[in-house]
Amino acid sequence: MFLVPPMLKESLEYLEKRTKTVAGFSYEVIVVNDGSSDKTAQISLDMSAKYGSNKIRLLDLETNRGKGGAVRMVLHLRVII
What's this model's pTM, rounded to 2 decimal places? Predict the structure, then answer.
């Protein structure tokens, strides 16, 4: 099991502090849940509700595509959006 949520919370707290101290600083975090059955998707959605959907987004894949497949999906979506 790959535990993203503890690292995600810590990272978002750091990024939020940066937005308050560095003029013009902004960020976007894309979390890819690659078919995982842990609580990554729910925790990511909770964080999105807390910090804003413009700052944290979730790509929730039904089946595991592996790291390379997940990265390609994100890049493909970024080109479309």
Answer: 0.74
